Amino acid sequence: MSRTIVGVISDTHGLLRPEAVSALAGSEYIVHAGDIGPEEILRSLEAIAPVTVVRGNVDLDAWARRLPLTAVLEAAGVRIYTVHDLETLDIEPAATGVNVVVYGHSHWPGIEERDRVMYLNPGSAGPRRFTRPITVAKLVVEDGRAQAEIIEIVR
Question: The domain spanning residue 64 has which CATH number?
Fold first, then answer.
């Protein structure tokens, strides 16, 4: 039995809160679903665990334009596909063996299952937008199955 913790974060927009770093501590992998801000955000996350990252719609700096629009992470028998904006999803997840789709963009956290695929939006960990919560997510992957939890990091 192999158990892997994947920390999931999105929409930092240049603000990596200490509460987000604490919530992601202990992760074996981190997925950042875009709208990062300065590259230092990724360096800070890489100090915790290897980072899989995609470019968001506001990631326009030269270094960020080199980031992929989609990425795949395999963890403990689970295939995690990441895209910033779910509207730009360019695959049929169930048909391509994807178990979890991670996305951001909306700043609304959520976990939903469709066609036996989990859709996970960790919400926004960066500056507060309107009345939306400040959140990250944690994926616990064990024996080819994933369970997700949204973690509110600032009340």
Answer: 3.60.21.10
